[in-house]
Write a structure and sequence with these properties.
With about 900 residues, this protein is mostly beta strands. Among the domains are: about 360-520, no CATH class; about 625-795; about 805-920, no CATH class. It has three helices and 80 strands. A hairpin with a 6-residue loop joins β45 and β46 (about 500-505). The N and C termini lie far apart (about 140 Å). The model is unreliable at about 1-20, about 580-595 and about 795-800 (pLDDT under 50).
Length: about 900
């Protein structure tokens, strides 16, 4: 009965015997081989020979014991579609000193506990492609060495700690570069960890060329954290780096700054959703790829440090950055950032931190979407519901002249789910192809699983997108997920020569079914925004356009490419210095290139320009969107005041406040919604004179307020005030305004004294304009604009364009020979000017000296007479030049008395102070 050929008969007989008595146990003695081909249930399954489970589910209610006894060897093989199951029992491999081996080729195996090497035995579990076994945790027992070998599969854990290391060493081995895949399957809301550190003294090692992958595969609504600690009991020996496959609510928490160091050196780290929590640590890795978030959930400062090995790396993907988590660039290599906006601080201390944001629309006649691989390692197909190409005008897929698909992209399921379903505009249908199943996803079919969109003529495309299908998502199906993970977009104008426009091998753990997953930018890149940028060494290199909330430079170099732009947004630039070759070559259209755009044009440190052209393109200062119009007196001190229109204009003469709707009377300014207007109090009104009539663009309606007492010098409570806030879509700054008379009683009811103010918060107000009789021409006819029809400009206010760049007191401006600072319209206000007398000076567009400044001459030639000395700097124009009379002169670090700075043509000259007597 023990011979392999009688296995099925043997099991049937045992099942018959076990129905009326105690449950039997199954024993496979040493030297014997038994094959299970049907489902069966036993109390205990003991294998000291070879047990092959090739069909059905083999259940052991108590335990599977593989190699039980000193010197025993046993092998368990689970293949085809078979499974082993023990919901409350144990899979014990290597028991009482035995040497056990388990080979898993299938998924869905379940044992409540897994124990390895009990009694000093050795054991190995091999996980092949798509296979796995679910347990609460894995315990390494005894002093022997045990192994988990990963060849495309891995265990899934349902408890807090993945491993309990009682004794000895447990090795996690990557076979042929496969991932060491560790998956959390439980719904425990809290912190999971790699090992239980409270008990035991065992150790863990890794080996091989694959990655260590920490994965959350279920319970997307449960907040879970995986705590990664190296301690002294884990030795990372693999070379493939680390990966975290998380969902939106999942965190990988670092409990040691050395978590991502293999052999003492930082290694690469990739993410596919979720968050990396640096947890108050300074975490060093080689490079970062994928998408997800980086955060610090503690109050202790932490940072993510990249590039410590000194080699070149890229940081790309779609990222969310917590403002408390700095990104530190160290090492001598170049780190190229091609990611999304960075809200935290960037610190550059060595090497080059390059921001790449230079792209144009791709323009081709043919676009080919190639799917190279899918998320699930045990999938049986690839599927998606929709595909689209995007340009500035939106989705242009429907404008195609045709489409094609590759061999292997057609529908083999016979259900009418071919590539055309990706183009039918329906989320309820899908493109499904069996050729990309894990079992037959050969190199040929991988490269031939594609969908091509053809246009009659070249079309510009800036982005593309694909939508997930209706089922088989990663969070519910895990290794059977059919979503694309690795793909490419190609462009061609002849259908033969193809250019790769974009490639992704990061995938997306997409929870939502039948929904878009992108879009994915292929050509156009918006301005990249950062939080604070600090440069203490190395180089911050800008290719394209970068905006930052504040910039602090205490060393190193800012390097801006020829068409680069660096913009400071509502912040402060501390100690900027543009050193040699920092601005690229000088171009003719310098007013549009090599610009630093500053919304707060003030500097607290020295501004040094060593080469190229540095110009400032200053936008309008803060544009207020909330306005307050107050009528203080009427033309004839009547008891009524009225107007038909109040219009704000931008610099191009466009009306900015048409179409406002009324809010409740007496609404506080700070509570006024966008696109709304209101009276500041419940004023008495004449007829249907709603406040919104001022902003409907019509003269046939009007605002009319009665019961005024505006004779003499009125108090505030007799004034009549209108507040209004511009609509969200209005962004241009207002520069002028106009009032229009109403239908009768002109000019008696016309306002004669008023103010117009603006505010950002409804609390602090800025006076834009005030008028009284004599300041304007008062209309005497109905439906007439004030001031002879000419809009009234703001006489004060932050809505006026600003062109002045201001350096703080005690700091210096310097421009090297051959370099230029500013273009026409830029004025530089400074109390310090430094000139290298040996290297000569450059050109400044317009210089505005402030009182009490200092001219600092360095490398002044010995023996040169300071009197009548022409300072080697070119200034195209001056503002407030008389202030030079208050400046001191410092020569080679020492203040000089009896000297005066004066303007001399397009330069400066030093003369001696003294009495001048003119004789006639």
């Amino acid at each position: 009965m023990r011979r392999a050929g009688f296995a099925s008969l043997f099991i049937a007989a045992v099942l018959a015997l076990s129905t009326n008595g105690e449950m039997e146990s199954l024993v496979v003695p040493a030297g014997e081989t038994l094959t299970v081909t049907a489902s069966a249930t036993y109390d205990t399954v003991t294998v000291n020979g070879t047990l092959i489970v090739s069909a059905g589910t083999l259940t052991a209610t108590n335990a599977f014991r593989i190699a039980d006894g000193a010197g025993a060897t046993g092998t368990l093989v689970v293949s085809n579609s078979a499974k082993i199951y023990s919901s409350e029992g144990t899979l014990a491999v290597g028991v009482n000193g035995g040497n056990g081996l388990v080979k898993l080729y299938t998924n869905g195996n379940i044992c409540r506990f897994v124990e390895l090497g009990d009694g000093g035995g050795a054991s190995t579990i091999c996980y092949y492609s798509g296979s796995g076994i679910q347990s609460r945790y894995i315990t390494k027992k005894g002093s022997g060495t045990c192994r988990l070998e990963f060849n495309g599969g891995g265990p899934g854990f349902g408890m807090v700690s993945f491993f309990h290391l009682d004794e000895g060493t447990l090795t996690l081995a990557s076979v042929d570069g496969s991932d060491i895949l560790l998956s959390c399957l439980g719904n425990y809301s809290g912190i999971h960890q790699l090992m239980d550190t409270a008990t035991g003294s065992g150790n863990m090692t890794t080996e091989g060329a694959g990655r260590v992958v920490f994965s959350f595969r279920g319970y997307s609504t449960v907040s879970q954290t995986f705590a990664l600690s190296t301690y002294s009991r884990v030795v990372w020996g693999h070379t493939g780096g680390f990966s975290f496959n998380g969902l939106d609510s999942k965190f990988l928490q670092v409990n040691s700054p050395d978590c991502f160091k293999v052999g003492g050196s930082p290694t690469k780290f990739s993410m596919y959703g979720g968050w990396l929590d640096v947890n108050g640590k300074h975490v060093e890795i080689k490079d970062l790829s994928g998408y997800g978030g980086v955060t610090n959930k503690t109050t202790t400062p932490g940072a993510l440090t990249l590039g410590g090995d000194g080699e070149d790396h890229s940081l790309y993907g779609a990222w969310d950055w917590d403002v408390k988590t700095p990104l530190c660039k160290i090492g001598t290599g170049t780190l190229t950032y091609e990611g999304s906006a960075f809200s935290g601080r960037v610190l550059v201390s060595n090497g080059v931190f390059r921001v790449a944001a230079l792209h144009d629309d791709a323009v081709y006649s043919h676009y080919r979407f190639v799917i190279d691989d899918c998320m699930g390692t045990a999938r049986n197909s690839m599927q998606l519901s929709r595909f689209r190409l995007l340009s500035g005008g939106g989705d242009i897929t429907a404008q195609r002249s045709g489409y094609e698909f590759g061999e292997g992209a057609d529908d083999r399921s016979g259900s009418g789910q071919g590539p055309d379903k990706a183009l039918d505009g329906n989320f309820a249908t899908k493109w499904l192809t069996m050729k990309t199943g894990a079992s037959d996803a050969t190199a040929f079919y991988k490269t031939n699983c594609w969908l091509q969109i053809d246009f009659a003529m070249p079309r510009g495309v800036a982005a593309y997108d694909w939508a997930a299908a209706n089922d088989y998502g990663f969070n519910t199906q895990g290794s059977a997920c059919r979503d694309p993970m690795k793909w490419r977009l190609l462009g061609s104008n002849d259908g033969e020569t193809w250019t790769e426009l974009d490639s992704r091998d990061i995938g997306r753990v997409t929870l939502t079914r039948s929904a878009w997953t992108g879009p994915y930018s292929i050509a156009t890149t918006n301005e990249l925004t950062f939080g604070a940028i600090s440069v203490v060494g190395g180089t911050f290199e800008v290719l394209g356009s970068v905006a930052a909330s504040s910039i602090e430079q205490t060393g190193g170099d800012f390097r801006i490419a020829e068409t680069g732009t660096l913009r400071l947004v509502n912040g402060e630039w501390k100690y900027p210095s543009f050193t040699a070759d920092s601005l690229g070559k000088v171009v003719s259209n310098a007013a549009e290139e090599n610009n630093v755009l500053c919304e707060t044009a003030s500097f607290s440190g020295d501004l040094a320009v060593a080469s190229g052209v540095l110009s400032f393109k200053l936008p309008s200062a803060t544009t207020h969107r909330l306005f307050r119009f107050t009528i203080k007196k009427t033309y004839s001190d009547t008891v009524c005041t009225q107007l038909s229109r109040l219009m704000l204009y931008d610099a191009n003469g466009n009306v900015l406040n048409n179409g406002l709707t009324a809010a409740n009377l007496g609404t506080e300014p700070e509570d006024l919604d966008a696109g709304k207007c209101a009276y500041a109090a419940n004023y008495a009104q004449g007829g249907s004179s709603s406040v919104k009539n001022l902003f409907d663009g019509k003269t046939s309606t009007k605002m009319c307020l009665t019961q005024l007492t505006m004779g003499g010098d009125p108090e505030n409570n007799t004034w009549r005030t209108v507040i209004f806030r511009l609509a969200d879509g209005v962004t241009a700054p207002a520069v002028s305004y106009q009032l229009t008379t109403a239908n009768d009683s002109t000019p008696a009811r016309n306002p004669s004294v008023w103010t117009l103010e603006s505010s950002a918060d409804g609390v602090n107000w800025l006076l834009l304009d005030s008028r009284k009789p004599g300041d304007f021409t008062n209309p005497t006819t109905t439906f007439t604009d004030f001031n002879g029809g000419t809009p009234m400009s703001f006489t004060a206010g932050s809505n006026m364009p600003a062109d002045d760049v201001t350096l703080g007191d005690g700091v210096f401006l310097s421009v090297a020979y051959g370099a230029s600072l500013g273009m026409e319209g830029n004025t530089f206000s400074t109390a310090g000017l430094r000139v290298d007398c040996t290297a000569l000076g450059g050109t400044i567009s317009c210089l505005a000296p402030r009182n009490g400044g200092c001219l600092d001459l360095v490398n002044f030639p010995q023996g040169t007479d300071i009197a009548d000395y022409r300072v080697p700097v070119t200034v195209l124009s001056f503002a407030d030049r008389r202030n030079f009379s208050t400046w001191s002169v410092r020569v080679n670090g020492e203040l000089q008395g009896g000297l005066r700075v004066v303007c001399d043509g397009n330069g400066l000259k030093i003369i001696r102070k003294g009495m001048c007597i003119i004789l006639h």
